[in-house]
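Lecture 7 notes: from sequence to structure.

We start with a single chain of 63 residues. Read the sequence below before looking at the structure.
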Amino acid sequence: MAEIINLRQARKAKQRDAAANQAAANRSLHGETKGEKLRRKQEADRLVRTVDGARLGDDGKDD
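Now the structure, written as tokens:
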């Protein structure tokens, strides 16, 4: 004998699964933890300091 299912519950479960999959996709695209943001900012700051420290010339003075 076939298993009896409630179509309303099955439809709602399918919608919840779809919403959970969409949320996971959005988190991977847009989500970033506070630590990741901090690490990315520190890396950018370090790169700017490295480039500025290696700069040759007369410190921007045009004579």
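The chain has a mean pLDDT of 89. Keep this in mind for problem set 3.
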